[in-house]
């Protein structure tokens, strides 16, 4: 036992890192050791401008005092309270605060610990909702190609990323997928929403006809697909999905894990597109990335359908040890206050044009085949190196880190989503440095 304490603290082998090329990383690690507002500090003492809000989550910038203090105070006052058949005030306060900023009609909240768990929770609510209403034959879940809904079994089943699915057996049964909305050759370098492609939503009608509406529980989509490279929906597409789902009694789930909390210039993407789902999945920005937490918001119609039977009976057999954890709830409350105090949930609308112009100034640089943007999200797609997909963008990522900017890559797409406190001067640095890097890529 005792010599376990002798393991060298900087031995990198024990931690099997997530979504990482472990062997490559451990040969040349990139370590972050501190953060403040828009900047990380690397282990070699450099300032690195955060162009990705961590992983799309640090929307208010790093180490914000109000959030830090709320976490410290709650940890000292009451670290944990049992989540089942017991409560503590802050979880209720946070649920109310969330409902207060959510699109009209999403009135009830289930807490989770991550985006992946929020997705599983949403899918389970959808299946159970139909069942408690006597429509248990609605067992099918419809996702979309190039959708990312986290890494748990439900999420990878409805998700549409082959590399995330192919290793893991049969996944959930009863799942089908709509085509993705990315139409290269038609829409390159579009600013904001794309004009063509909205009719792709009618593919859902084809799937409904194939399976019959009476077997379909829910459709899940990201309003803007983030992880597969910032795919902005064509104009009218989400409204069409809403119309079709409503017509057939199918629930519509928006996965707003990335798009929630101001990322597209409105509190949620549902607000931006003017389309309200039946269930909304959130995480990430809920606590500004500080303490793991997610939340699933549902309509009263869904919630109330469960509130039947004897009162002593548990209405929904689901929950996590840390659902509504006190420290996470305190972090969430302080985060929502910070967003409100600083107008961050709509700041993306104010800065969106500057961001868009800056991003599109990269058009014409070597290998750039598309640029996409919405709110404070942006993507620069590179032509892959023949026979070595992902290599060119990954090399941009490494060079960017060395040059003092943090970007993210997925395939050969560079995705950026700075904290919402970003200033124009930060955008100039980020895009300026990226331009220089793009000029040097093989
Ligand atoms: C749209 C979407 N859903 C779900 C998830 C999964 O969230 P987590 O990594 O917190 O499980 C992500 C993560 O990036 C996401 O982008």
Q: What is the topology?
A:
Elements: H1 22-27, E1 32-36, E2 39-42, E3 47-50, H2 53-56, H3 65-77, H4 89-101, E4 106-112, H5 115-132, E5 140-144, H6 153-158, H7 162-165, E6 175-178, H8 203-211, E7 216-221, H9 237-247, E8 251-255, H10 269-273, E9 279-282, E10 294-299, H11 300-306, H12 326-341, H13 347-360, E11 368-374, E12 377-382, H14 391-403, E13 405-406, E14 408-410, E15 413-416, H15 424-440
Parallel strand pairs: 3-13, 5-6, 5-7, 7-8, 8-9
Antiparallel strand pairs: 1-2, 2-3, 4-10, 9-10, 11-12, 12-15, 14-15
Helix pairs in contact: 3-12, 4-12, 5-11, 13-15, 14-15
Pyridoxal-5'-phosphate binds at residues 114-116, 119, 148-150, 222, 226-227, 255, 257-258, 283.
Describe this protein's structure.
The chain is α/β, with parallel strands linked by helices. The protein folds into two domains: 2-59 and 344-440, Aspartate Aminotransferase, domain 1 (Alpha-Beta Complex), CATH 3.90.1150; 68-341, Aspartate Aminotransferase, domain 2 (3-Layer(aba) Sandwich), CATH 3.40.640.10. It has 15 helices and 15 strands. It has helices at residues 22-27, 53-56, 65-77, 89-101, 115-132, 153-158, 162-165, 203-211, 237-247, 269-273, 300-306, 326-341, 347-360, 391-403, 424-440; strands spanning 32-36, 39-42, 47-50, 106-112, 140-144, 175-178, 216-221, 251-255, 279-282, 294-299, 368-374, 377-382, 405-406, 408-410, 413-416. The strands form three sheets. Strands 4-10-9-8-7-5-6 form a seven-stranded mixed beta sheet, with helices on both faces. A four-stranded mixed beta sheet has the order 1-2-3-13. Helix 3 (65-77) packs antiparallel against helix 12 and helix 13 (347-360) runs parallel beside helix 15. The longest helix has 18 residues, at 115-132. It is globular, with a radius of gyration of 22 Å. The model has no long low-confidence stretch (mean pLDDT 96). The structure holds pyridoxal-5'-phosphate (PLP).
